[in-house]
Amino acid sequence: MRTLELNAGGESLRLSRLVFGTGSVGSSIPPQESAALLDLYRAMGGNCIDTARMYSNGASEETIGRYLALRSCRATVAISTKGGFPPKNDMHHSRIRPDALKSDLESSLRALGTEYVDLYFLHRDDPGYPVEELMPFLDGLVRDGKVRFLGASNWTAARIAEANRFAVSNGLTPFAISQIQWSLAAATPAMWEDDTIVCMNDAESAFYRQAHMPVMAFTPLTRGFFSKAIAEGIDSPALETYAAFKTPLNLARAERVHALCDRYNATPTQICHAYLTSGSPDGLAVLGAKKRAHLEDSLAGADLTLTAQDLEFLCASDAR
Questions:
Q1: What sequence ranges are listed for the domain NADP-dependent oxidoreductase (predicted)?
Q2: pTM for this predicted structure
Q3: pLDDT in single tens digits along all 320 residues of the chain
Q4: Do residues 18 and 273 lie in contact, with contact meaning Cβ atoms separated by under 8 Å?
Q5: What does the alpha-carbon distance between residue 170 and residue 83 come to, in Å, rounded to a whole number?
Q6: Which of 29, 132, 300, 311 has the largest CB neighbor count within 10 A?
Q7: CA separation for the pair 3, 190 (Å, rounded)
């Protein structure tokens, strides 16, 4: 499987381009089935498991922790987790504070059965909280050996840039990676009905290119929008579930995905993942597969690389 090398502060970490997402692990995906999916993922060269303290109310991390112990594979797996998520009944109540983050991280380490995590993402941002107070605390987590690389999840490029300017100028650990909503389908937070997430757009993309910062894309398939559009047709009533995403641009992109599927003998899933992992910004895709067949589909296209011409074709703005 193709990989990406993350570098910061003299540390390096090689991550598989396809990341195993665990939002449903421990809840709708029971432990035994989760283990079988993880076995398949690792057998195909995958090495990064992405979770969060709030996934399945902590059961995701606990399930992963049991799996790591059962397979004795902690040394060969990169663990990515996230803390600081707001209360679910009040998404604008910030928990981006040292006490909350410290509590979340300690809970994560206990659940995962590990002394450190490879990637630690702040799961949301509080734009009003000074980076001058936050970054020294985060740097301490790295210096204490509990975190190898810092990440920002659903932070705007402007805030990441502000935080990293302060960190670098003061000899502190900067953010090395970001996690936002990114897929071939152009989307906005309003389309997802969640104004606390950050979606890739031209301004965000320009920052990541300039900063050479990799992006771990969540919901990279837009819940199967392109697969459904190609299987059912762009005028099908079945696409009403995706009404918010049925823009002229996205429908035109569905036709282009179909064309590349024919060219590469690939599935829409494989083309959409390759779109994220083939160009710039440097991308990784978080797999949300709940079924073995879906995971097999994704992994079968793990080494598909699109050309610059393919990427330009997919992103052409001449929507009908």
A1: 17-312
A2: 0.96
A3: 999 999 988 889 999 999 999 999 999 999 999 999 999 999 999 999 999 999 999 999 999 999 999 999 999 999 999 999 999 899 999 999 999 999 999 999 999 999 999 999 999 999 999 999 999 999 999 999 999 999 999 999 999 999 999 999 999 999 999 999 999 999 999 999 999 999 999 999 999 999 999 999 999 999 999 999 999 998 888 889 999 999 999 999 999 999 999 999 999 999 999 999 999 999 999 999 899 999 999 999 999 999 999 999 999 875 44
A4: yes
A5: 24
A6: 29
A7: 32
Identify the residue whose tokens are 């598909």.
304
Report cis status (omega within 30 of 0) of the bond before 31: no
CATH number of 3-315: 3.20.20.100
Dihedrals φ, ψ of 216, to 5°?
Answer: -95, 110
DSSP string computed for the chain: --EEEEEETTEEEEEESEEEE-TTBTTTB-HHHHHHHHHHHHHTT--EEE--TTGGGGHHHHHHHHHHHHHT-GGG-EEEEEE-PPPTT-TTS---SHHHHHHHHHHHHHHHT-S-EEEEEESS--TTS-HHHHHHHHHHHHHTTSEEEEEEES--HHHHHHHHHHHHHTT-PPEEEEEEE--SS---HHHHT-TTS-B--HHHHHHHHHHT--EEEESTTGGGHHHHHHHH-TT-GGGGGGGGG--HHHHHHHHHHHHHHHHHT--HHHHHHHHHHSSSS-EEEEE---SHHHHHHHHHTTT----HHHHHHHT-----
